[in-house]
Amino acid sequence: MEQSVIYLTHCRKEIFCFSVPEVCPSCGEELQGRRLQEAPVSIPSPFTDGHKTSCCLLVAPAHNNPDSGTSDLHTGISNTKGVVYNYTQDGVRRDQSGWSHCVCIPLVRPDMFHLLAQWDVYLEGFSVGPTWDPVFHEDEHNCFSFCLQFLNSVLAVEGRSALSREDFIRSFILPRMRRVSKYSTVIQHLQKHQFYVVDRQEESVPTS
């Protein structure tokens, strides 16, 4: 299990660690019994078990899905039962395992009951179309285009405008992947060193 990252501030520094130290790694002042500028908080991991989600876009490292045909990321859509629909060189797969460590991006609000009730029907119907036969093309016809075209098909049914590839990446993918990148950088540093210390940024929100 991945260790939790703890964040605290002291002497105008932002300090990341796996456990609260007895002394400040920056100034050497004892921390025990002293009032910190902010109470230590645990930063949640950006990764989650995709099979415990519903109606979400899931993003995982491609090495977890060797048939994805890409070198970086693999994407899929979860149904209401946590089965992950994803397009590979073999066509559409319906995975009940293999997505336990991925980034989850909710696509449906909890109060959208009509869409939740139809989600599985939409997803299964979309997946069996001839478009998604095993004719994988890495640049234009891949796991990402499968997810984007499915989402746009749902938007069309809902009477809403379609998303371009650029808008989808900017609005849904990039904000989550930036957080993953920052979190992974901190984890890798802490695995080699005891602390990760940076100058405190005004109005910084470390968990965003």
From TrEMBL:
Pfam families: DUF4796_C, DUF4796_N
Taxonomy, superkingdom: Eukaryota
Domain MKRN2 opposite strand protein-like N-terminal: 3-31
All residue ranges annotated as the MKRN2 opposite strand protein-like C-terminal domain in the record: 40-189
PANTHER family documented for this protein: MKRN2 OPPOSITE STRAND PROTEIN
Protein name: MKRN2 opposite strand, tandem duplicate 2
Biological source species: Fundulus heteroclitus (Killifish)
